[in-house]
Every structure is written in structure tokens, then in C-alpha cells.
Design goal:
single chain; 63 residues; mainly alpha; 81% helix; 6% strand
Length: 63
């Protein structure tokens, strides 16, 4: 049981940090990112961490 809490905490922290970084890099005036290549990496990791969190919530609700 204790083993499941660490990935949830870690992925939620990663998702928060990357979400804030993406928000800060996005230029709302021109609808572009300041550094597009870095933004792609951030988006991929952000989506993966959100996927893991959603998968964990679904797994808990089945039990």
C-alpha cells in the first residue's frame, strides 16, 4: 500500500511543475511558445504524468 503513494505524489509534483512551466512559456498574444522544442518535451512528459495519475485513480475506483 505504501508503495503506491510514492508514484502518485511524484507524478503529481511533476505535473504541477510542468504545467506551470508550460503556462509561463506560452505567449498568449501570438499563441506560440518561446522555446517550441522544449515545450514539446514538457508536453509529452506532462501528458504521461497525467495519464499515470488518471490510470491510478481508475485502478483505485475498481477496488
Amino acid at each position: 500500500m505504501e508503495n503506491q503513494k510514492v508514484p502518485v505524489f511524484t507524478f503529481s509534483i511533476v505535473a504541477i511543475i510542468l504545467g506551470v512551466a508550460l503556462y509561463k512559456q506560452f505567449d498568449f498574444k501570438n499563441l506560440t511558445f518561446e522555446k517550441p522544442a522544449l515545450a514539446v518535451v514538457y508536453i509529452i512528459v506532462f501528458l504521461f504524468s497525467v495519464f499515470v495519475l488518471v490510470k491510478n485513480v481508475r485502478k483505485r475506483s475498481e477496488k
